[in-house]
Amino acid sequence: MKNLEILSIDISSSLPLPYAEEGIRAGFPSPAQDYLEQSIDLNKTLIDHPASTFYGRVVGDSMKDEGIFEGDVLVIDKSLELQDDDLAVCYLDGEFTLKRVRMEDNIAYLVPSNPKYPTIKVTEDNDFTVWGIVTYTIKKNRRKR
Q1: Phi/psi zone of residue 65: left (φ > 0), alpha (ψ -120 to 50 degrees), beta?
Q2: Total of domains in the chain
Q3: What is the pLDDT of residue 1?
Q4: Spatial distance between the Cα atoms of 98 and 86, rounded to a whole number of angstroms
Q5: Residue 139 falls in the annotated catalytic set
Q6: pLDDT for 10-66, tens place per residue?
Q7: Domain-located, residue 116
Q8: Which residue is catalytic, options 13, 14, 62, 140?
Q9: pLDDT tens across 87-130, in order?
Q10: Could you tell me if 40 and 19 are in contact, meaning their C-beta atoms sit under 8 angstroms apart?
């Protein structure tokens, strides 16, 4: 992935949406609820640190085998510290990239989820920063017709 469109968040509004508190079964169906009493506000649910959280729109297909596709929206928290195997937005040599970051003997490896892209070993010659940790991926599930 060569680019990532970074967008700031707006948490000034609230939009409570109906919420199926009992969960949605992915196995055998259960009787539908006649009404939903609970509500959920996605701003409060998805964003723990508003001052350091951004949205990013995925450009490219380097993470497709992980189910992350072009156009998906990422919730990126810059206040979180990197942990091994985190999905992270990294700044590498002048470009943003989305990869799994694996740590091995104090060496970072940027690992794609598409075999047509190589794993990148970060060296001291690289201009490298972990810009933020991806906490959620928001995707459109309805297929184009």
Answers
A1: alpha
A2: 1
A3: 42
A4: 10
A5: no
A6: 777 765 655 555 555 565 555 555 555 577 777 778 888 888 888 889 999 999 999
A7: yes
A8: 62
A9: 999 999 999 999 999 999 989 999 999 999 999 999 999 999 99
A10: yes
Tell me if 113 is assigned to some domain: yes
62 is catalytic: yes
| Other CB atoms within 10 Å distance of the CB of residue 121 | 11
Cα(118)–Cα(23) distance, rounded to whole angstroms? Answer: 39
> Taken in order 38, 41, 46, 52, is the CA torsion positive or negative?
negative
Q: Is residue 143 part of a domain?
A: no
Is the residue at 99 inside a domain? yes
* CB burial of residue 110 (10 Å; 0-12, 13-18, 19+): buried
CATH number at residue 46: 2.10.109.10
Domain that holds residue 18: 3-138
Q: What tokens appear for 10 in the block? A: 């707006």
Residue of 12, 99, 116, 121 marked active site: 99
Helix (DSSP H) and strand (DSSP E) numbers for the chain: 1, 10
Residue pair 72/1 in contact by the 8 Å Cβ criterion: no
